[in-house]
Write a structure and sequence with these properties.
The chain has helices at about 15-30, 60-65, 70-80, and strands spanning about 1-10, 35-40, 50-55, 85-90. The protein is α+β, with helices and mostly antiparallel strands and about 100 residues long.
């Protein structure tokens, strides 16, 4: 399993527009083949920063999404709203203290 974390820092006057747009596309991403689930997290100290946190079966599933028509329509829409260059990490889980039983 691959965990993908993407940090997006939006212009202050664009974050509400992003959140409204996100609500229209979240299920498309969440239900993309190979995606096991996704969360949108918002920074409590800077509400213009959000992070997507998603689980993927394998790296190829993530790559299929990144080259898909779905991603190809989402990214050009939100890219002009960024205040800073996005940051992204693909990681593997080493420990999960949330799975207690």
């Amino acid at each position: 399993m691959i965990i993908r974390i993407v940090k997006l820092h939006f212009q202050d006057d664009k974050i509400d527009q992003f959140l409204a747009f996100f609500d229209t596309i979240k299920e498309k991403v969440n239900e993309f083949p190979g995606c096991l689930g996704m969360k949108l997290l918002r920074d409590i100290n800077n509400p213009s920063i959000v992070m997507t946190y998603s689980h993927w079966n394998e790296a190829q599933d993530l790559e299929n999404y990144r080259t898909s028509e779905t991603f190809g329509t989402i990214w050009p829409t939100i890219k002009p709203w960024f205040a800073e260059k996005p940051e992204a990490w693909s990681v593997e889980e080493h420990f999960n203290g949330f799975d207690r039983g």
